[in-house]
Amino acid sequence: MAGPEAGPASVAGTSGGRGGAGTVACGGGERGESGAPGSGGPAGDGGAERSALPPTSLSPSRASDFMQCPLLYRFRVIDRLPEKPSEAATRGTLVHAVLERLFDAPAGERTAPRAKALIPGQWDRLRESRPEVTELFADDPDGQRLAGWLAEAERLVERWFTLEDPTRLEPAERELFVEAELESGLRLRGIIDRVDVAPTGEVRIVDYKTGKAPRPEYAEGALFQMKFYALVVWRLKRVIPRRLQLVYLGSGDVLTYDPVLADLERVERKLHALWEAIRQATESGDWRPRPTKLCGWCDHRAHCPEFGGTPPPYPLPVRAAESGTV
């Protein structure tokens, strides 16, 4: 970008415009996505009672799920098994909401004390919209754990001010829902934390992470989500974002990447291959588990064959495999 300030130009109209404070993520992500049928998001309360539908779109989180473990993707998207909120994921949602709402204030009033003062109200709002998060502190009668949890949210918010100066930023979009359909018919969707547009028209996509920055050898995986968003913006607006920026509040690091057309074309090819694998698994009902060290945090081990479990009956029709002759 030419500078940290964002000019009056906007990518508004890319899709639904500014959204709300986000939703609680399940299974270790920072925020969840819509649980509507076909959206690719995990189910909320009562999700198991909804009619199962084949997936119709792909988001960065669900793409990552399939790459991590195809069976996890099935549990979340096809079976819509319920998942418990986690303290880390819920704190991420809370911090995202605070950083979004801070920009409602005039530039000169975007201070760390004001941001921290938003936390109690946003926590109340989150509990009203997602009552299940209150379960996180059900065994905390004296409120000590909750107080420590909120204090950590304050530290994350305060650290952001050492990484960016909100008094010099005027985001074009916040919590922007984007959706694009590729020529192949594959529909991509997601929520971008912040879009900055410089006076020169250059676009910067910014994502907040409440965890720590990955080691350099894992940076490409972290950038996948950002390149996904860059691809969607390019397909919608024919504009390649000038910069992709990941702000890691857990470690105080900022990771940036300046994409080029070849990057976006590679991501598009990868997503097409991924979607074809998802299509085949959907039609065959063959969803393979892929054991990793992340299994220890999975809510679905009771249903996973790797841990002696049995998946629920497959709720979609299965197409018989074609038999050939030698």
TrEMBL record:
Mind telling me which InterPro entries this protein's record contains?
PDDEXK-like_dom_sf, PDDEXK_AddAB-type, Restrct_endonuc-II-like
Q: Which domain of life is it from?
A: Bacteria
Annotated stretches, region: Disordered: 1-62
**Domain PD-(D/E)XK endonuclease-like as annotated: residue spans:** 57-305
| UniProt keyword list | ATP-binding, DNA damage, DNA repair, Exonuclease, Helicase, Hydrolase, Nuclease, Nucleotide-binding
Q: Per its record, what are the GO molecular function terms?
A: exonuclease activity
- Bias (Gly residues) ranges: 14-46
Spell out the protein name for this chain: RecB family exonuclease
- Native organism is Streptomyces tricolor
